[in-house]
Amino acid sequence: MGWGVYSPLVSLPVYVNPGSAFNCYWTMPFRKNCKITMENINDQDAMTLYYQIDYTLTEVPGDAAYFHAKWRRSNPTKTSDYSIVDNIKGIGHFVGVYMAWGVNNNGWWGEGEIKFFMDGDSKFPTICGTDTEDYFCGSSNFDRDGQYKEFCTPYSGLPQVIHPDGTYHNGSGFIVGISMIRFVLKKTYVLLFKIWVGIKAVAICLNNRIYPLLHFGIRPNRIISFPNSWLGKN
To answer: φ, ψ for residue 171 (rounded to 5)?
Structure first.
């Protein structure tokens, strides 16, 4: 989970369970071959890994979408319009996003709306949400009795809140760490041409830390353009 801190997560495609069990149920079809790698980006501690991979050798439908995930980081944010994903063209399915948000200042940070610019949108997006917590299916600052309240559902949640304790958490440079999920497993956002997805941070949120992980399904042989080299081929 975010910030290298364990937090349980229960959703349809992903489970995080005690003590450090990460379970993924995303469908990831392949036609010729597949390759799975694990990378330890912690240069201080060795990685102890055990795993189980389940797969089926079967016919893959011609319109089955390849699975793609893209991780980004902004530390700190420099603009109020933060791009979650951009420059994707083709036919596909936006299936969700995980977002870790580090709040470096006092006050509420989640007034920014999420926007989906699709198929030639210019000034106004096809989808324009309200506040950040609304997109992740919460409301009113995720607040109950003056405190953030964690929750998990099959499609959305606020699974992690790292509260300041007056010592290490404040000293590490942020006041509170938030992790949020939103999955759209039914084919709601089918792209006909182009998509840009972004979230707006209000002025109080500048210089925060944002770490989104985007999940996307793309139909094979129907791609016009995909950014960089994160388009699977097999």
So the answer is: -70, -20
